[in-house]
């Protein structure tokens, strides 16, 4: 398995953990999981040279942090 595939799967599992933590209202651990997952998916975008993946995860990060800080 390529390194990018390992990062992709780890990021996916962490994102799913973030969704589960959100469903159980476990804050701020859900935010931490999402930030790590977003960072890893951004890294996947860099490895693939896929700007769409990078941009969507920058947007997700800004939305997540902005929402967290305003709450």
How many beta-strand elements? 0
Spans with pLDDT under 50 lasting ≥5 residues? none
Radius of gyration: 12 Å
The percentage helix is over 70%
Largest sheet data? none
The structural domain count equals: 1
Order of helices and strands: HHH
Explain this structure.
This protein is an all-alpha fold and 71 residues long. The protein has one domain. 86% of the residues lie in helices and 0% in strands. It contains 3 helices and no strands. It has helices at 3-23, 29-48, 51-70. Helix 1 packs antiparallel against helix 2 (29-48) and helix 2 packs antiparallel against helix 3 (51-70). The mean pLDDT is 97.
Helices, strands, pairings?
Elements: H1 3-23, H2 29-48, H3 51-70
Helix pairs in contact: 1-2, 2-3
Give a concise summary:
By secondary structure, this protein is mainly α. It has three helices and no strands. The chain has helices spanning 3-23, 29-48, 51-70.
Essential attributes:
86% helix; mainly alpha; flat; single chain; 71 residues
